[in-house]
Structures are given as structure tokens and as C-alpha cells.
């Protein structure tokens, strides 16, 4: 038995001409973006609210999505940023002690168009064979020819600067740093370091993990010049994850170059990693279908240790372009792509995957400790 036939019709049209027919389990209307697949088995709410998915339609390969509903806590940003959602099926009944609304109600509230009831395995194989495709989701009133032409008109993410689109408009102090455990809520301890975090689409769990490690955080807009950041006299600078192509973010690349020259401890995640690489003189390239999932093996090149990591990126740093002074620290064991770098002449390093991933895996969480160590080792200001 399935709930789906009670929902209005929806289609997903791809730029290659393929059309999938299913049911509209979110908002009605039209959504256009790059269609990608994510293999995570949990965390749909964190995925939908991760600003790195801006202009992307996410297909979840796990077949039952929505089982635990949605709540007011599991937001990685203030809103839903994914352009659309594609799933195989909804549960007949969603249930969890933290649930406040069902996934369809949540999607409707945030205006996210979503389709269910299509063969997500077939779609995933198509994306793996042909590469990420431009697509159009249409829900409610269906006009197949229009959906196909909308999909074909999407220019693709290459060359698209989206970090400044999703970033905060004004600087703010981040305060929520406590942790929940079986013993209850533990407020964050006293701050030892002041970190300025660039918001290119920052995930909240990164801010939480830094606060829990004794950082006071000032979050600044993507286009903040280095001179403004230096006025805070920070102990360290964090470069966040974010959507789109890193290459057109010249404002960030310029700022990072100046901060590198100032020898400020710096840590970058995902888009932040790619921007650190660009600022150091390396190049980034678009991947065929990217990495989106929570079971990606990554090797630490200094210890040989293999870690299971969470990943979400469609661009990557080309290892052939690493200049002198920039060292590879991690590689993907799925495809050998670069996963981490470190400057040999400045206290700056970065990681392509997501050490902050909530609910996990947590194998790479100690990269946050490494950032703290670099700030502790920096000469007094
Ligand atoms: N999660 C991210 O920061 C993604 C980085 C970049 N937008 C990419 O797709 O590669």
C-alpha cells in the first residue's frame, strides 16, 4: 500500500529528454536546477537545509524518506535551500519524539517542489553514466514540453557564484554552542579563541563544533574584505562550505590571499577548501556527478589511516595544479580525487568532505581540534 496516489501528479524532466512521472509530495509549481544524487540513509532535513544545495535538485537513493518527519532543530541554515527533492517513497506513517510536522508539510511550508514514486535507481544510474543533468521538476499543472525546455535552458552550475547569494547580509555573533547528551544540555565553556567565520553558506553544526571547542564566533558575509576581518583581530579564520562554483568567487580568493599573507590560522571546509586552493594558485574543476553521501572512504596521507566521511561537492581541486607550498593531505579512495590540503608556509589547511556532518560519520571530527591547535600555537597577537 502506498500513500502516493492521493497526491497530485508531478514530473521530473531532464535536459537529455528523459521524463519521470510521479506524485507531488511538496509544493506545487516548477523548480529548475542541477539534478544530483545523495546516497545517505538519513539526514534528509539536514540535506534540504544545507545551503550548499542551492540550485540543485537532490535525489535521495535511500528508498523510504520522511519516516521521522521534520522538526525545528535539525536545520543547517535558516531555510530550505535545495531547489527540489526526488524520492522513491514516503512512509505510511511518520513518527519520532522530536517530530513537529510531516515531510510533505515541511516541503510545502518552504515552497520546495518534490516528486515521489519514480524509479530513483534508474535516475541515479542515468546521472552516473551521463553526469549531473539539468532538470525541471513540475508539480500540479503539468506541461511536459515546458518542463523539458526549462531544463534545457538551465545553464549549469559551472561559472555560477552562489556563495554571496546565500550568505548572511550582516555580520553576527554565533552563540548556540551547547551540547545535548543523556545528562541534559551542557552549555559551551568559556571561549579561548575568537574565530571569524566566512559564511559562504555555512552549516550550523560547524559553528556548534567550533563553539564547543572554545571558540567565540563572528560570522561575516561572503564578500567581507580581508581588511575588515583583520579589524576583529581574530585568532583564526574559518572558510565555510557553500553552493556553486568556487572559481567566480574572486572576492573570497583575494581576501584569503591577504589573510594567508598575514599568517592567520585558517581552516576551510568544502567550498572553503576549494577557495583556499584557488587562493594558493591551484585550479578547480567540475566533476562528472560529484560526491554526495555519508560513506565515502578517505585516506589521511600522513598516517595511512582510512576514514569514512560525509561528502557533498560537485567541484574538486585538480591535484595536478598544486603549487609549491601547498601539500595534499587526504585523498578519496573512491576515485583518487583530492580531499585535503595544507599550506607548508602558513598555518592554513582544509578538507573537501564534511567533518561536521550531523549525524555523522565523525571519523574526521578531529580536524576541528587541529584548527584549535594551530590557533594555540600561533604567536601572540
Ligand atoms: N558543500 C560544499 O561546500 C560544496 C562546494 C561546491 N559548491 C561544490 O559543489 O563542489
Query: Are any ligands bound, and if so which?
Result: glutamine
Average pLDDT taken over every residue: 95
* Domain tally: 2
Task: Summarize the helix and strand pattern as letters.
Answer: EEEHEEHEHEHHEEEEHEHEHEHEEEEEH
Strand % is: 25-35%
Describe the model.
The mean pLDDT is 95. The strands form 3 sheets. This protein has a 10-stranded mixed sheet with strand order 8-12-11-13-14-19-18-17-15-16, with helices on both faces. It has a 7-stranded mixed β-barrel with strand order 1-2-6-5-4-3-7. The chain has a two-stranded antiparallel ribbon with strand order 9-10. α8 (250-261) packs across α9 (271-279). It is built from 10 helices and 19 strands. β3 (29-38), α1 (44-48) and β4 (56-60) form a beta-alpha-beta unit. With 381 residues, the protein is α/β, with parallel strands linked by helices. The protein folds into 2 domains: 4-153, Glucose Oxidase, domain 1; 163-377, Rossmann fold. It starts with 8 loop residues before the first strand and ends with a helix. The structure holds glutamine. Glutamine is lined by residues 52, 241-244, 270-271, 312-315. Belongs to the CarA family. Composed of two chains; the small (or glutamine) chain promotes the hydrolysis of glutamine to ammonia, which is used by the large (or ammonia) chain to synthesize carbamoyl phosphate. Tetramer of heterodimers (alpha,beta)4. L-glutamine binds at residues 52, 242, 244, 271, 274, 312, 314-315.
Amino acid at each position: 500500500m502506498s500513500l502516493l496516489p492521493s497526491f497530485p501528479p508531478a514530473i521530473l524532466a531532464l535536459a537529455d529528454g528523459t521524463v519521470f512521472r510521479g506524485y507531488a509530495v511538496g509544493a506545487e509549481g516548477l523548480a529548475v536546477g542541477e539534478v544530483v544524487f545523495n546516497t545517505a540513509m538519513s539526514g534528509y532535513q539536514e540535506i534540504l537545509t544545507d545551503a550548499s544545495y542551492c540550485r540543485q535538485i537532490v535525489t535521495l537513493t535511500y528508498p523510504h524518506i520522511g519516516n521521522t518527519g521534520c522538526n525545528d532543530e535539525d536545520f543547517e541554515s535558516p531555510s530550505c535551500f535545495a531547489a527540489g527533492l526526488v524520492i522513491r517513497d514516503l512512509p505510511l506513517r511518520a513518527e519520532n519524539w522530536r517530530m513537529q510536522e510531516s515531510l510533505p508539510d515541511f516541503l510545502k511550508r518552504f515552497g520546495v517542489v518534490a516528486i515521489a514514486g519514480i524509479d530513483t535507481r534508474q535516475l541515479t544510474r542515468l546521472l552516473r553514466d551521463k553526469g549531473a543533468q539539468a532538470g525541471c521538476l513540475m508539480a500540479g499543472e503539468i506541461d511536459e514540453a515546458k518542463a523539458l525546455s526549462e531544463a534545457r535552458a538551465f545553464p549549469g552550475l559551472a561559472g555560477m557564484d552562489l556563495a554571496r547569494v546565500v550568505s548572511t547580509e550582516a555580520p553576527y555573533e554565533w552563540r548556540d554552542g551547547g551540547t545535548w547528551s543523556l545528562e541534559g544540555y551542557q552549555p559551551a565553556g568559556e571561549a579561548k579563541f575568537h574565530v571569524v567565520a566566512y559564511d559562504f553558506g555555512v552549516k550550523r553544526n560547524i559553528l556548534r563544533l567550533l563553539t564547543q571547542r572554545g571558540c567565540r564566533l563572528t560570522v561575516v558575509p561572503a564578500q567581507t574584505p580581508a581588511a575588515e576581518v583583520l579589524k576583529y583581530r581574530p585568532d583564526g579564520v574559518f572558510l565555510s562550505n557553500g553552493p556553486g562554483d568556487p572559481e567566480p568567487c574572486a572576492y573570497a580568493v583575494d581576501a584569503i590571499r591577504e589573510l594567508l599573507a598575514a599568517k592567520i590560522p585558517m581552516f576551510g571546509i568544502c567550498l572553503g577548501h576549494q577557495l583556499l586552493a584557488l587562493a594558493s594558485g591551484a585550479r578547480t574543476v567540475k566533476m562528472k556527478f560529484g560526491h554526495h553521501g555519508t560513506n565515502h572512504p578517505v585516506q589521511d596521507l600522513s598516517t595511512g589511516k582510512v576514514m569514512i566521511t560525509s561528502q557533498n561537492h560537485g567541484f574538486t581541486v585538480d591535484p595536478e595544479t598544486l603549487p609549491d607550498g601547498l601539500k595534499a593531505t587526504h585523498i578519496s579512495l573512491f576515485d583518487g580525487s583530492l580531499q585535503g590540503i595544507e599550506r607548508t608556509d602558513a598555518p592554513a589547511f582544509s578538507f573537501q568532505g564534511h567533518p561536521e556532518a550531523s549525524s555523522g560519520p565523525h571519523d574526521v571530527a578531529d580536524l576541528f581540534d587541529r584548527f584549535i591547535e594551530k590557533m594555540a600555537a600561533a604567536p601572540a597577537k
